[in-house]
Design goal:
Largest interface: A-B, 32 and 38 residues
Distance between the termini of chain B: 53 Å
Strand content of chain A: 5-15%
Shape of chain A: elongated
Number of helices of chain B: 20
CATH architecture of the largest domain in chain B: Up-down Bundle
Number of domains of chain A: 3
Structural class of chain B: mainly alpha
Number of helices of chain A: 16
Largest sheet of chain A: 5 strands, antiparallel
Oligomer: heterodimer
Distance between the termini of chain A: 74 Å
CATH class of the largest domain in chain B: Mainly Alpha
Order of helices and strands of chain A: HEEHHEHEEHEEHHEHEEHHHHHHHEEH
């Protein structure tokens, strides 16, 4: 660690010895009495206009300051820091904050003129709501912190930022509400983040894998959201949040499977409507998982499941199909996955052509050519659509669905049941940060059922979820309501 | 982490374990007891209920596990030997249900005759469950309860309109011999009263725990008796030949003509519960082996037990009737000994280690613990007391000073 002296050129050489990259530039100017000054900054992430206006201009008009304190009085900056050695000055320069060297003043003054091009706050594509806030997180950590702070104006909100990534030095912020969140969970999250030694963190999903106790698991281990209102609601329930610079996806812990069946809109509509929606989502997930498998099992092993009239229709449809039902379904599911992959990645102007090819060529023509049957296409289409009612589970569902089809085709209905038992045993035995994945159903937490698949009215949600072990359990008190109920 | 809740044990008795008695037991029972099958089953349930009550009484008096009780009374070596014998018994008792399930699956879930391999993946699932320990047993009960309740209710609702309950009359036609032989030979299906003995020390006894467990046990018994009544009401004399009543009782429903065999979906749901049920004795078997050999990783006994059971099911693939006859006619003393005599005798075991002044390992008696956890208010009091005990003396002083000042002020 080289100490910074009072000579700008020597300091510049010390910094340049560490930061030899060509995008690290030096802006040289002089004070009013002719003493040399230099600001070293990283091009592209520093506001040069601000640097000229608020740093170079006042200094060139005034006499040279004799100390850093005197210099700070001349600069109109809210964010000013000191750097005594080359390493800390380099770190700040790389973060977008220039280091200012003044002849005769030892050390550097770090100027908070960071300016990174960020996109505007917009509604996230994965969580569109009809009612409710439409703001979404963006890639800038400071903006995301501001979005959270705007919703939780309390001194209890804690944002503890650390750097992860040997080369990327990505800022990762652990967010929680002091006095509400279980301190053990916060501690565990911080320890896990601190233990990470990695070259770079391109996205929060990297951190999610480090926070998960079973990173190889097929099922999600960490909650994700792109919406600050959902993020804040989860913090208020007693969860810990993690924001990562460069990622619009915030993480929440502990994660419960039931979270994916809840949508933000459920809290803005009537509880009956919300309950129906949640049961619809559950039914859709069951359809997405089991419908193709039972179709295969019914055809191959248990024809009686189908009503007689439907059996005749199906048997008429599958006549002359060269593939077995399991192969046919497997083939169609793979085609569906390819179509989804292609539609996500391809440019929008090709989307129309893709839908024509997907719907007409692969669908209609394949049926006419006798390669696949119409019932199979209907089943796969229904299953594919149903999976998207719970967007956060789509990836898991598509893999498990293929496993179910394979098992149904080889072992039949009993295979489907065995795989269900295995999946259930796996989910039952999964605990993350002290919260069972299947809570509040297993283990049964009666009180938490009020906001699970059922959505009780707002007065019933007086307590925070018990599985999160919050220190402060009460989240709602309505004095007038209590008086009303006392008066009968 | 091997902890259960009392609620989960209640769910096990009310909604998981009854499934084992719904497969081949009804037709077997109607062979011995004919239209008195309800009486015969009721006798068996009463006997099992007495054992369950005895075990719950024991749970009320101690927080020790059965292993601890055996160790306190006879020493460590005997405890290990008994646990190994229990493991052997649990393994032995799961062979008949395994074969029963294999036959049920191959005959009901397929139109054709499937290969034996169709059944073998069960052992992989069971092995996974065995590795996971008691935690999954309790949580599985939480999941299985609504599945059983809905599926069973729908099947009964579909079947009841076709049942002629007059077929159960006249009561006592089979005679005492028929009724009691039905109960005696039905013992292989009534060995679950041993399970709470193995759960001992793994669940916290709550106030009224005995009654809660007994109530759930009799709810489960009621469900089985209801199915037996409906089954005999529908099939009458043909019930002896009608194996696997679950799959047959609702097939005459009018819904079947328009919706297909819609009842099969509920049969599948009950089969899922049955899979959980069949894993249970093997999970307990692995637990017993691990208690006897604590250093053993769970995977090894789980693999060994499941591989052995797989080998036996392959061996007896075509000899189900012989195995069943052996279990019913010759093995009932073994069931009597392990499922009935052992739990009753365990009441006499020493609750506290020798020479420690009647205190359990952590220095608290079970009665003391029970008193403390009687009601939510008592729990709160206990929590405060515990908090006070852990408050450092200086902190206590800080609390006391303002009070003293307040008094001075007054």
């Amino acid at each position: 660690m080289k100490k910074l002296g009072a000579k700008p050129e020597e300091n510049i050489s010390a910094v340049k010895a560490v930061l030899a990259a060509e995008d690290v530039l030096v802006y040289r100017f002089k004070t009013g009495d002719g003493r040399a000054c230099a600001a070293v900054y990283a091009d592209g992430i520093t506001d040069k206009e601000l640097l000229g206006e608020l740093v170079a201009k006042p200094l060139s008009l005034a006499k040279a300051p004799k100390s850093r304190e005197e210099a700070k009085k001349l600069l109109y900056f809210p964010e000013l820091k000191d750097a005594d050695d080359a390493e800390s000055a380099c770190n700040e320069i790389l973060a977008g904050n220039p280091a200012l060297f003044i002849e005769g003043v030892a050390g550097a003054i770090v100027l908070g003129t960071k300016k990174i091009a960020v996109r505007a706050i917009a509604e996230p594509q994965t969580a569109i709501t009809v009612k409710g806030p439409r703001e979404g997180f963006i890639e800038d950590l400071k903006t995301n912190m501001g979005l959270v702070r705007r919703r939780l104006k309390t001194p209890a909100l804690r944002l503890e930022t650390s750097e992860v990534g040997k080369y990327s030095r990505t800022a990762v912020s652990v967010v929680y509400l002091d006095g509400i969140t279980d301190a053990h969970i916060v501690q565990q999250v911080k320890e896990r983040i601190a233990a990470v030694e990695i070259d770079g963190v391109p996205d929060s999903s990297y951190i999610a894998q480090f926070l998960a106790k079973k990173p190889y698991s097929l099922f999600k281990q960490v909650g994700t959201t792109e919406k600050p209102d959902i993020f804040c609601a989860k913090l208020l329930e007693g969860r810990v949040g993690v924001l990562v610079d460069g990622s619009p996806i915030a993480l929440t812990l502990p994660y419960l499977l039931v979270e994916d069946f809840q949508s933000a809109q459920d809290y803005f509509v009537s509880p009956y409507r919300a309950t129906i929606s949640r049961f619809l989502r559950l039914a859709a997930v069951c359809i997405a998982l089991f419908l193709p498998a039972f179709y295969v099992a019914a055809q191959l092993f248990k024809l009686q499941i189908l009503p007689f009239a439907l059996l005749l229709t199906v048997s008429g449809g599958i006549q002359g199909i060269p593939l077995s039902p399991s192969l046919e379904l497997f083939f169609l599911l793979v085609v569906l996955e390819i179509l989804i992959e292609a539609s996500v990645r391809m440019p929008k102007y090709v989307a129309l052509a893709l839908s024509v090819i997907g719907a007409l060529v692969l669908g209609d023509t394949a049926v006419k050519a006798g390669l696949v049957s119409s019932p199979a296409i209907i089943i796969v289409a229904l299953s594919g659509i149903a999976a998207y009612t719970v967007p956060d589970l789509t990836g898991t569902l598509s893999v498990v669905r293929i496993a179910y089809v394979v098992v149904a085709g080889s072992i039949g209905t009993y295979g489907v049941l065995l795989l269900t038992a295995l999946v259930l045993y796996y989910l039952l035995s999964s605990d993350e940060y002290g919260a069972p994945l299947l809570a509040p159903f297993s283990p049964l937490v009666r009180r938490d059922l009020k906001d699970s698949l059922l959505k009780a009215d707002i007065y019933a949600l007086r307590r925070r979820p018990a599985v999160l072990h919050s220190k402060n359990r009460t989240r709602l008190r309505v004095k007038n309501k209590e008086k009303e109920s006392e008066n009968g | 982490m091997d902890k259960l809740k009392l609620r989960q044990i209640c769910f096990l008795f009310a909604a998981v374990l009854p499934v084992t008695k719904l497969i081949i037991y009804p037709s077997t029972l109607s062979y011995y007891a004919k239209n008195d099958l309800l009486l015969s089953a009721a006798v068996s349930f009463l006997a099992e209920g007495v054992v369950v009550a005895a075990v719950m009484l024991l749970a009320r008096r101690t927080r020790c596990t059965l292993y601890d009780l055996l160790q306190n009374t006879f020493g460590q070596v005997t405890a290990k030997v008994v646990y190994l014998l229990l493991a052997a018994f649990l393994f032995f008792s799961s062979l008949l249900p395994a074969l029963e399930q294999k036959n049920f699956v191959t005959q009901i879930l397929y139109e054709n005759v499937p290969s034996y391999l169709s059944f073998t993946p069960f052992f992989a699932v069971c092995c996974f469950a065995c590795v996971k320990g008691f935690k999954t047993v309790g949580r599985m009960a939480d999941v299985a309860m609504p599945i059983f309740a809905i599926a069973f209710a729908v099947l009964i609702l579909l079947a009841v309109p076709h049942a002629d309950f007059g077929a159960l009359q006249p009561t006592g036609a089979a005679g005492a011999r028929g009724i009691f032989s039905g109960s005696l030979f039905g013992l292989p299906w009534f060995s679950e009263c041993l399970y709470p003995l193995l759960f001992l020390g793994h669940f916290g006894y709550e106030k009224g725990g005995l009654w809660k467990v007994l109530l759930s046990f009799f709810i489960g018994a009621g469900a089985v008796l209801l199915l037996l009544a409906v089954f005999y009401g529908i099939f009458e004399d043909l019930s002896i030949l009608t194996q696997y009543p679950l799959a047959h009782i609702a097939k005459y429903s009018t819904a079947g003509t328009t919706l297909g065999r819609v009842d099969f979906f509920f049969v599948f749901a009950l089969t899922l519960v049955y899979i959980f049920c069949l894993c249970l004795p093997l999970q307990l078997c692995v637990h017993c082996i691990r208690k006897a050999f604590p250093r053993l990783a769970p995977l090894l006994p789980a693999l060994a037990v499941n591989a052995a059971l797989l080998a036996l099911t392959v061996l007896f693939n075509y000899s189900f009737n012989a195995v069943q006859t052996f279990y019913m006619r010759y093995a009932f003393p073994v069931f009597l000994l392990f499922s009935y005599a052992l739990p009753l005798c365990s009441l006499l075991l020493r609750k506290t280690p020798r020479g420690e002044g009647g205190r359990e390992p952590d220095g608290q008696t079970a009665r003391h613990e029970r008193r403390r956890t009687r009601s939510p208010r008592a729990k709160e009091r206990a929590r405060r007391r515990q908090q006070e005990e852990h408050t450092p003396p200086q902190a206590k002083e800080r609390v006391r000073i303002p009070r003293a000042r307040r008094k001075e002020g007054a």
